[in-house]
Protein backbone atom coordinates (compact mmCIF):
# COMPACT_ATOMS: atom_id res chain seq x y z
CA UNK A 1 0.00 0.00 0.00
CA UNK A 2 1.93 2.98 -1.24
CA UNK A 3 -0.71 5.28 0.24
CA UNK A 4 0.23 4.33 3.78
CA UNK A 5 3.85 5.19 3.23
CA UNK A 6 5.02 8.14 5.28
CA UNK A 7 6.29 10.81 2.90
CA UNK A 8 8.15 14.10 3.16
CA UNK A 9 8.78 16.81 0.59
CA UNK A 10 12.24 18.38 0.28
CA UNK A 11 12.42 21.68 -1.61
CA UNK A 12 16.06 22.35 -2.43
CA UNK A 13 17.56 25.85 -2.56
CA UNK A 14 14.86 27.89 -4.30
CA UNK A 15 16.76 31.06 -3.46
CA UNK A 16 17.19 34.39 -5.24
CA UNK A 17 20.79 33.80 -6.26
CA UNK A 18 19.78 30.64 -8.16
CA UNK A 19 16.89 32.32 -9.96
CA UNK A 20 17.03 34.67 -12.95
CA UNK A 21 18.77 37.87 -11.84
CA UNK A 22 20.76 36.09 -9.14
CA UNK A 23 24.54 35.75 -8.95
CA UNK A 24 24.45 32.04 -9.90
CA UNK A 25 21.24 32.03 -11.88
CA UNK A 26 19.82 28.81 -13.22
CA UNK A 27 18.05 29.36 -16.54
CA UNK A 28 14.28 29.27 -15.90
CA UNK A 29 15.02 28.40 -12.28
CA UNK A 30 11.96 30.34 -11.18
CA UNK A 31 9.73 27.90 -13.07
CA UNK A 32 10.07 25.44 -10.18
CA UNK A 33 8.18 27.76 -7.83
CA UNK A 34 4.65 27.02 -9.11
CA UNK A 35 4.84 23.20 -9.09
CA UNK A 36 6.65 23.18 -5.74
CA UNK A 37 4.12 25.54 -4.16
CA UNK A 38 1.33 23.20 -5.27
CA UNK A 39 3.11 20.19 -3.78
CA UNK A 40 3.98 21.96 -0.54
CA UNK A 41 0.33 22.89 -0.09
CA UNK A 42 -0.78 19.31 -0.75
CA UNK A 43 1.75 17.87 1.70
CA UNK A 44 0.85 20.40 4.39
CA UNK A 45 -2.88 19.83 3.86
CA UNK A 46 -2.31 16.11 4.48
CA UNK A 47 -0.20 16.84 7.55
CA UNK A 48 2.97 15.54 5.91
CA UNK A 49 6.34 17.15 6.63
CA UNK A 50 7.83 19.72 4.28
CA UNK A 51 11.44 20.83 4.35
CA UNK A 52 13.09 23.68 2.51
CA UNK A 53 16.84 23.60 2.27
CA UNK A 54 18.84 26.77 1.74
CA UNK A 55 22.42 27.33 0.74
CA UNK A 56 23.72 29.39 3.66
CA UNK A 57 27.35 30.18 3.10
CA UNK A 58 29.76 32.22 5.19
CA UNK A 59 31.23 35.22 3.32
CA UNK A 60 34.52 33.35 2.96
CA UNK A 61 34.38 29.72 1.92
CA UNK A 62 36.48 27.55 -0.34
CA UNK A 63 33.24 26.89 -2.22
CA UNK A 64 33.69 30.30 -3.91
CA UNK A 65 36.10 30.80 -6.82
CA UNK A 66 37.75 33.79 -5.15
CA UNK A 67 38.81 31.50 -2.27
CA UNK A 68 39.96 28.62 -4.44
CA UNK A 69 36.65 26.95 -5.26
CA UNK A 70 34.32 26.74 -8.20
CA UNK A 71 31.50 29.23 -7.92
CA UNK A 72 30.77 32.94 -7.99
CA UNK A 73 29.79 34.30 -4.60
CA UNK A 74 26.20 33.29 -3.84
CA UNK A 75 23.77 32.72 -0.97
CA UNK A 76 25.89 34.41 1.69
CA UNK A 77 24.13 34.26 5.06
CA UNK A 78 21.68 37.10 5.71
CA UNK A 79 21.93 38.62 2.24
CA UNK A 80 19.07 39.19 -0.22
CA UNK A 81 20.56 36.59 -2.56
CA UNK A 82 20.20 33.92 0.12
CA UNK A 83 16.50 34.63 0.67
CA UNK A 84 13.95 32.24 -0.73
CA UNK A 85 12.28 33.30 -3.97
CA UNK A 86 9.60 35.83 -3.03
CA UNK A 87 6.79 33.69 -4.50
CA UNK A 88 7.84 30.46 -2.80
CA UNK A 89 5.22 29.33 -0.29
CA UNK A 90 6.04 30.28 3.26
CA UNK A 91 4.34 28.53 6.15
CA UNK A 92 5.24 28.08 9.82
CA UNK A 93 4.84 24.30 9.43
CA UNK A 94 7.75 24.18 6.96
CA UNK A 95 11.16 23.34 8.43
CA UNK A 96 14.13 25.23 7.00
CA UNK A 97 17.41 23.34 6.77
CA UNK A 98 20.51 25.52 6.36
CA UNK A 99 23.48 23.92 4.62
CA UNK A 100 26.83 24.95 3.16
CA UNK A 101 27.76 26.58 6.47
CA UNK A 102 31.12 24.79 6.70
CA UNK A 103 33.71 27.05 5.06
CA UNK A 104 35.84 24.07 4.04
CA UNK A 105 33.11 22.11 2.21
CA UNK A 106 30.77 22.62 -0.74
CA UNK A 107 27.70 21.40 1.14
CA UNK A 108 25.66 20.57 -1.94
CA UNK A 109 23.45 17.99 -0.25
CA UNK A 110 20.68 18.87 2.17
CA UNK A 111 21.95 15.97 4.30
CA UNK A 112 25.56 17.22 4.40
CA UNK A 113 26.38 18.68 7.81
CA UNK A 114 22.69 18.95 8.78
CA UNK A 115 20.25 16.95 10.89
CA UNK A 116 17.85 16.35 7.98
CA UNK A 117 18.37 12.57 7.94
CA UNK A 118 17.82 12.32 11.67
CA UNK A 119 14.68 14.45 11.49
CA UNK A 120 13.22 12.32 8.71
CA UNK A 121 13.95 9.12 10.61
CA UNK A 122 12.47 10.57 13.80
CA UNK A 123 9.27 11.34 11.89
CA UNK A 124 9.16 7.82 10.49
CA UNK A 125 9.48 9.02 6.90
CA UNK A 126 10.03 6.26 4.33
CA UNK A 127 9.79 8.16 1.08
CA UNK A 128 11.05 11.62 0.13
CA UNK A 129 10.02 13.72 -2.85
CA UNK A 130 12.78 16.08 -3.99
CA UNK A 131 12.72 19.08 -6.31
CA UNK A 132 14.36 22.49 -6.59
CA UNK A 133 17.67 23.94 -7.73
CA UNK A 134 19.79 22.84 -9.27
CA UNK A 135 19.31 19.43 -10.88
CA UNK A 136 23.02 18.83 -11.46
CA UNK A 137 24.32 19.88 -8.02
CA UNK A 138 22.27 20.31 -4.87
CA UNK A 139 19.20 18.38 -6.02
CA UNK A 140 21.29 15.50 -7.33
CA UNK A 141 23.45 15.27 -4.20
CA UNK A 142 20.39 15.48 -1.95
CA UNK A 143 18.68 12.70 -3.93
CA UNK A 144 21.80 10.49 -3.86
CA UNK A 145 22.23 10.98 -0.10
CA UNK A 146 18.57 10.20 0.49
CA UNK A 147 18.94 6.93 -1.41
CA UNK A 148 22.14 6.10 0.51
CA UNK A 149 20.35 6.73 3.79
CA UNK A 150 17.70 4.21 2.88
CA UNK A 151 14.81 6.43 1.81
CA UNK A 152 12.73 5.75 -1.25
CA UNK A 153 13.10 8.77 -3.48
CA UNK A 154 10.94 10.42 -6.09
CA UNK A 155 12.92 13.02 -8.05
CA UNK A 156 10.44 15.64 -9.29
CA UNK A 157 11.63 16.32 -12.83
CA UNK A 158 9.01 18.99 -13.55
CA UNK A 159 10.12 20.89 -10.49
CA UNK A 160 13.89 21.11 -10.98
CA UNK A 161 16.19 22.92 -13.40
CA UNK A 162 19.90 22.53 -14.17
CA UNK A 163 22.92 24.84 -14.07
CA UNK A 164 24.47 23.06 -17.08
CA UNK A 165 28.04 24.29 -16.81
CA UNK A 166 28.42 21.74 -19.58
CA UNK A 167 25.28 21.46 -21.70
CA UNK A 168 24.50 17.85 -20.82
CA UNK A 169 25.16 18.07 -17.06
CA UNK A 170 21.46 18.13 -16.26
CA UNK A 171 20.70 15.10 -18.41
CA UNK A 172 23.63 13.21 -16.86
CA UNK A 173 22.42 14.10 -13.37
CA UNK A 174 18.95 12.76 -14.10
CA UNK A 175 20.47 9.51 -15.34
CA UNK A 176 22.73 9.28 -12.29
CA UNK A 177 19.77 9.72 -9.95
CA UNK A 178 17.81 7.10 -11.86
CA UNK A 179 20.66 4.60 -11.78
CA UNK A 180 21.12 5.16 -8.04
CA UNK A 181 17.54 4.01 -7.56
CA UNK A 182 15.51 7.22 -7.50
CA UNK A 183 12.26 7.24 -9.41
CA UNK A 184 12.21 10.10 -11.92
CA UNK A 185 8.69 11.53 -11.92
CA UNK A 186 7.60 13.89 -14.68
CA UNK A 187 9.41 15.33 -17.65
CA UNK A 188 13.14 14.58 -17.47
CA UNK A 189 13.77 17.08 -20.27
CA UNK A 190 12.60 19.87 -18.01
CA UNK A 191 14.88 18.66 -15.21
CA UNK A 192 17.83 18.58 -17.60
CA UNK A 193 16.93 21.82 -19.29
CA UNK A 194 18.47 25.11 -18.69
CA UNK A 195 19.64 27.33 -21.44
ZN1 LIG B 1 26.59 27.03 -2.74
Q: What would you note in describing this structure?
A:
α3 runs parallel beside α4 (169-180). The mean pLDDT is 96. Helices cover 26% and strands 19% of the residues. α1 links the parallel β1 and β2 (50-55). A six-stranded parallel beta sheet has the order 3-2-1-4-5-6, with helices on both faces. The longest helix is centred in the C-terminal third of the chain and has 14 residues, at 135-148. It is built from five helices and six strands; from the N terminus they run βαββαβαβαβα. It is globular, with a radius of gyration of 15 Å. With 195 residues, the chain is α/β, with parallel strands linked by helices. Bound molecules: zinc ion. Zinc ion binds at residues 55, 57, 63, 74-75, 100. Residues 55, 57, 63, 74-75, 100 line the site of zinc ion.
Broad structural category: alpha/beta
Indicate the radius of gyration in whole angstroms: 15 Å
**Proportion of strand residues:** 15-25%
| Number of distinct beta strands | 6
| Secondary-structure element order, N to C | EHEEHEHEHEH
How many helices? The count is: 5
How would you sum up the global shape?
globular
Q: Look at the structure and give the mean pLDDT.
A: 96
Q: What about the largest sheet?
A: 6 strands, parallel
Portion in helices: 25-40%
Separation of termini?
A: 40 Å
Name the strands of the widest sheet in spatial order: 3-2-1-4-5-6
**Low-confidence regions:** none
The ligands bound in this entry are:
zinc ion
